[in-house]
Amino acid sequence: MTKQSLFKGTMILTVAGFITKVLGFANGIVLANVIGPEGVGLIMMAMPVTGLLITLTTLGLPIAISKLVAEAEIKGNYRRVKKILVVSLVTTSLLGFILMIVAIFGAKALSSHFLTDQRAYYSLLAVIPIVPIVAVSSVIKGYFRGKQIMTPIALSQAIEQVVRIGLIFFLVQWLLPYGIEYAAAGAILCGIIGEGFSLLYLFSVFKWSKHKKFKLHHSFIKQLSKGKEIFFDLLKTGLPTTGNGLIQSLIGIIQPILITQSLALAGIGTALATKQYGIVMGYAIPLMLLPGFVTNSLSIALVPAISESKENNII
After folding, report:
1. Which residue from 17, 157, 167, 264 has the least number of CB within 10 angstroms?
2. pLDDT for 119-148, tens place per residue?
3. Helix ranges, the chain (H)
4. C-alpha to C-alpha distance for 212 and 209, rounded to whole angstroms
5. Are 165 and 30 in contact (CB under 8 A)?
6. Are residues 273 and 103 in contact, defined by beta-carbon separation less than 8 angstroms?
7. Alpha carbons 41 and 278: distance in angstroms, whole number
8. pLDDT for 180
9. CA neighbours closer than 13 Å in the CB half-sphere of residue 140
10. Rounded CA separation 307/67 (Å)
């Protein structure tokens, strides 16, 4: 695959973002018809936990990877690119696995003591396994961003949504007779399966497109043992960007607690509070944030382009 210009890469991501948003709304319509706002509320209570876990797992490394890979590509330093990938994969995989175990054991306490609806426990359990999948895919996406090849990233987003929508109706319908909480957990599992297919696609494209000189599976331990400098370079760029994501993730976790607890204090029942929370977070907020995919696409494409220009002493 050939490198794409800033404009072309941004346009590809923008179109993919628009298609993904449309598919996301289609997914929301299917969910609304099957499990209703109450089920969506249970899902929305669980999702912020995933955001926090992913933020702590990736540590801003996707942005750092794209920056460092873009700089190494200009110099033709494939060995450094290899080290970047090895160190990033090991770091995110270990953190993802550890945080996933901690979250599994803490899910019961979170749903029992902080959320008003304890049925969200099943959604919390269902969403946690997505963390290591997203951690690995974020590394590969960072690699493609660094090489300024945005097409695989765009297609992976579309694949994730298509698989999710294709599965969600059948799995949720099958679980619905067992209870709304199981149906909501099933909807989340469809998203995890979609992320898994997206990761398989990214990995297959990565394996097919990498340079002959670039063999990731050769001397893996050797590259890791020499990756201390790369690790600190990644953290130097990644950690400052983690702060913003961490604050947003914490707000996302506190938000359902405050809203549902406030509704409970106002005398609203648990089921109705969950339903109203689902209407706000599942329908109103996504519609308000719809235009965000344009600026997000530009920000993704800008980092490697600026890094490349800096290495070429253009800026």
Report:
1. 264
2. 888 888 888 888 889 889 999 998 998 888
3. 6-34, 36-58, 61-75, 78-113, 120-127, 130-146, 151-175, 180-209, 220-225, 228-265, 270-279, 285-288, 292-311
4. 9
5. yes
6. no
7. 3
8. 87
9. 26
10. 6
Q: Of 218, 248, 183, 255, which is closest to residue 83 (Cα–Cα)?
A: 218
**Which distant-in-sequence residues (6+ apart) come within 8 Å of 65 by Cβ?**
84, 85, 88, 139, 142, 143, 145, 146, 234
Q: In this predicted structure, what is the pLDDT of residue 247?
A: 83
Task: Give the number of residues written for the chain.
Answer: 315
DSSP letters for 275-296: HHHHHIIIIIHHHHTTTHHHHH
Is the torsion defined by CA of 232, 60, 135, 294 positive or negative? negative
What six digits make up the tokens of 272? Answer: 């109705």
- Cβ neighbors of 240 (< 8 A, separation 6 or more) are 60
The closest alpha carbon to 202, from 288, 139, 289, belongs to: 139
Angle at 123 between CA 39 and CA 109, to 5 degrees: 120
User: What is d(CA 188, CA 192) in angstroms, rounded to the nearest whole number?
Assistant: 6
pLDDT range class, residue 221, cuts 50, 70, 90: low
At 224 the pLDDT is 56
Quickly tell me which residue has 């976790």 as its tokens: 253
What three-state secondary structure class fits 44? helix
Distance CA 85, CA 172 (A): 37
Q: Using CA atoms, how far apart are residues 145 and 182, in angstroms rounded to an integer?
A: 37
With cut-offs at 50, 70 and 90, classify the pLDDT of residue 43. Answer: confident
Question: Average pLDDT of 231-253?
Answer: 81
